[in-house]
Design goal:
With about 200 residues, the protein is an alpha/beta fold. The chain is built from eight helices and five strands, in the order E-H-E-H-H-E-H-H-E-H-H-E-H. The mean pLDDT is about 95. The structure holds thymidine-5'-phosphate.
Length: about 200
């Protein structure tokens, strides 16, 4: 079986860059690895992503969480599980912790509702390791100022503060799965920290 590693964090934490660097490092060690993202990762899930991320809309929060889970179900069944079964490692840019942070902590969906949706959509699948790239909200927003803002990035600052709190709360509840990485550091230091955690967790060198 491959390993499932998710990267989480607020907008502007540098997940995409760090995933690319970790994928290169694993590749160099001869580990078969794919990179993917949520919402998205299959054509159908990317279509749902457009609804959620690119278009203006005012979803009911539970409906929004359900759309994220429809996309996740697609992604898990068609891409993540087959890769893991074939021994390929999966580096996923966001996974269900983003639903907990954004839809529950940010938008008010009950934690029990997220957990019921999760069980229904993906069963017991959990990341083997989650790296939380943590950065203060203002610093993350500074980094994304120059690119086109997504629907979530346009949401108010208070929501983003609650999202960060949500991620940190998950990390404190599940320290064996989730490791917090200081993402305010320069990309090289963050990459070294990420490699160190992965090497230790999976006994690689
Ligand atoms: P990103 O892939 O550029 O980070 O953008 C995806 C956006 O979608 C991001 O702002 C967070 C949001 N999101 C949720 O609100 N819930 C989720 O379950 C996921 C996966 C993402």
């Amino acid at each position: 079986m491959g390993q499932l590693i998710s990267f989480e964090g607020g907008d502007g934490a540098g997940k995409t860059t760090q995933i690319a660097r970790l994928a290169n490092w694993l590749d160099g060690l001869g580990v078969p690895v794919i990179r993917t993202r949520e919402p998205g990762g299959t054509d159908e899930a990317e279509a749902i992503r457009t609804l959620l991320v690119a278009q203006k809309a005012d979803w009911d929060p539970l409906a929004e969480a359900m759309l994220h889970y429809a996309a996740r179900r697609e992604h898990v069944e068609k891409r993540i599980r087959p890769a893991l079964t074939s021994g390929t490692w999966v580096l996923c840019d966001r996974f269900y912790d983003s639903t907990i942070a954004y839809q529950c902590y940010g938008q008010g969906v009950a934690l029990e509702d997220e957990s019921a949706l999760r069980q229904f959509a993906i069963g017991a699948l959990r990341p083997d390791l989650t790296l939380l790239l943590d950065i203060p909200v203002a610093a993350g927003r500074d980094r994304t100022r120059d690119r086109r803002q997504s629907r979530y990035e346009e949401m108010n600052n208070d929501l983003h503060l609650r999202v960060r709190e949500g991620f940190l709360a998950i990390a404190h509840r599940e320290p064996e799965r989730v490791t917090i990485i200081d993402a305010a550091e320069d990309p090289e230091s963050v990459a070294a920290a990420v490699r160190a955690v992965v090497a230790r967790r999976f006994d690689l060198s």
